[in-house]
Amino acid sequence: MQTPVFFHADQLLFSPPYEWDKRGYVKHPENPKRINSILKALKKASGDFVFLEPDPISQSVIQQVHRSDFLRLYQLAQENIPSGQYFYPTFFPKAHQRDSDPDNIHHAGYYCTDTSTPLGPETLISATWSAATAYSAASHLLEGKSNLVYALTRPPGHHASADYFGGYCYFNNAAIAANRLKEQGSVAIIDIDFHHGDGTQSIFYFDNQVLTVSIHADPNEHFPYFSGHANEIGEGAGRGFNLNIPLMPGTDGDTFLQVLTELVVPRIKEFAPAFLIVAFGADTYHKDPICDFKLDTPDYNIIAKQLASLNLPTLVTQEGGYFVPALGDNVVSFLSGLR
Ligand code: OKP
Ligand code: ZN
Predict the structure, then answer these.
(1) Which one of 22, 113, 130, 159 would you pick to mutate in the ligand 1 pocket, going by the greatest count of ligand atoms within 8 A of its CB?
(2) For residues 255-277, b (16+ Cβ closer than 10 Å) or e, as one string?
(3) Ligand 1 within 6 A of 319 CB?
(4) CA-CA-CA-CA torsion for 32, 34, 38, 40, nearest 10 degrees?
(5) How much is the mean pLDDT over the chain?
(6) Is 96 a catalytic residue?
(7) pTM, full prediction
């Protein structure tokens, strides 16, 4: 059986050329070339994959996860920023400053965590289609049409919370999918992007129906810096339903697999969810330009097989992965392991 791949071409409209990082103005790593690499590799393995277009989603689907100001702000950008231009939030107010106005682009920094996540006229359209792929993939899984679905989400989502966006993420695609799946049963989200899935963690932090697990680089050294520590375990009813596993620079495939096998898989088995969501990033790859783990292409296959051993209906979202020449092969290696 072919694995459904949800994707919409308008996800590629958004294309900011630069980000501001700590070295200054640099080429933006999260660009449409990444997706072309993935599309090419999937088409090469086309016996195994079938492309499906997502259905459009209504604003209310997004607002179940994100504050409505997001939509107003992105819409403001859509209507006011000239084509080819991007607004980089550079002012980040603190609590004692006045309330935010999502109809004022100069207030964008209120909602945004970094200078890597600019707003452009196509942000809303691309981010909405990205969320729609995740939502349609979740519906497909619920209808029992396949036990494995891949949402080719771009822009990525795992750094977007209910009330802030950042880290190249505008809407939390995995959370939107989880919110849909939750209608039918509990959900485990395992985030294996190099970076901590802080947005996803925060959305479900008080929730005991969604177990959030993230394996990632030490947040003292890497984005998102302010969360991802092992002592963040959830709160209230959600206490014990968030698991963070920060790892050392240079972590290789063997260590990653060991952590997954010994710590993550047993926790997910204990939770016994109805559905599994994998927020997959290939920025753990040894040649990734912005990360420092040491995984290789075959490691993704082995890791995926370990996750497949859980034998759960599984939805994969695409998060990071910035070494474009190998990105498609890494994604196909991973998805093939799940198949
Ligand atoms: C998004 B995802 C490097 C700056 C890095 C943001 C990293 C966002 C990663 N030039 N700042 O989790 O792959
Ligand atoms: Zn990442």
Answers:
(1) 159
(2) ebbebbeeebbebbeebebebbb
(3) yes
(4) 70
(5) 98
(6) no
(7) 0.98
